[in-house]
Amino acid sequence: MTPLVGYVGYALRRAQGVIFADLSQALAPLILRPVQFTVLLLIDQNPGTTQSCVSAALGIQKANFVATIADLEGRALIRRRKSESDARSYSLNLTPRGRALLQRALELQSQHEARVIGQIGLEERLHLLALLHRLAQLPVTEPVKIAARSHPVRPDSEHAAAKDWQVAG
Amino acid sequence: MTPLVGYVGYALRRAQGVIFADLSQALAPLILRPVQFTVLLLIDQNPGTTQSCVSAALGIQKANFVATIADLEGRALIRRRKSESDARSYSLNLTPRGRALLQRALELQSQHEARVIGQIGLEERLHLLALLHRLAQLPVTEPVKIAARSHPVRPDSEHAAAKDWQVAG
DNA sequence: AGGAGTTAGTTATACCAAATAATTATCTGG
DNA sequence: CCAGATAATTATTTGGTATAACTAACTCCT
Fold first, then answer.
1. Which sign does the torsion angle of CA B35, B41, B44, B47 carry?
2. What pTM, to 2 d.p., does this model score?
């Protein structure tokens, strides 16, 4: 029933879902989601960076990034201070607590990568990363949105719900 | 700013997004989304199949599949008939119009795959598919959901500055 | 034959991620 | 100094997914 396995798009989607689930599971004990982990990591490696920088690096719109950063601050994992050089922006740093949590997260994440290596091997993992990197460089034309459906489910149905666009993070 | 490229999860996510966008774009002239394309393809290759079969094959919950199938039927691309052998289910088939559209979609999709090959080459594409297949076989423990944020934004945030956001509990 | 339990399809609902637009405060370049 | 750009925030909308409940029809078991 699934001759789709021969399509790159489908295979990518499947693999992405599995890997994401595994990483989510790995970080769950820390009450950290993958995106939160990467935010901590980026701040750690770029002390004093700003919300705009981090969100841009992750491809997240700054508006949607506010709640994420506010949560991490609320958990005392990061600190936000008015930037000296630019009063509009905040400079972000990890708190000692954030650094400690990141340390534990990195261990869990390396166990996750170890599972990946268990599936495909050390050398093939590097090969995969190279291939994915090349794929990601395919020129992206501006995403044209298609209406969820051309015809209402039921003409008389008030708000026919249900959508069919895939992709999740 | 992105040392994340060395992580399989991140690289997968990026590549998946780009490839999905390219396929979406490719199918846009037909007002077909990737998932609709795959539904048509599966029905074409499994004439008389049911909604449950198709939705299960695609990993979509049957409840969320209703609107998708209703739309395709509304566009006269598929036909739904009460199954003879099981009056609960519908048997699905493409209409001539659906078959014609699928044909055009397949051409556009093969152009899409050609672009993929343009990025990584014919042989490497097969290699990639094999690697992704192995990744997808990583045992998935039941996805443990983590709350989007542990500390919800204040409900009455009319005059709430960022620093006022509270730690819930 | 007949009821218990199951399955196909449907509806309604809730949740969450992402996109958009508008606002305020601040910076920068001519 | 002012016009325009930028950082952060808020509110809102949209789209995908998950869940529960319901109806109708099937299966199995005795």
1. negative
2. 0.85
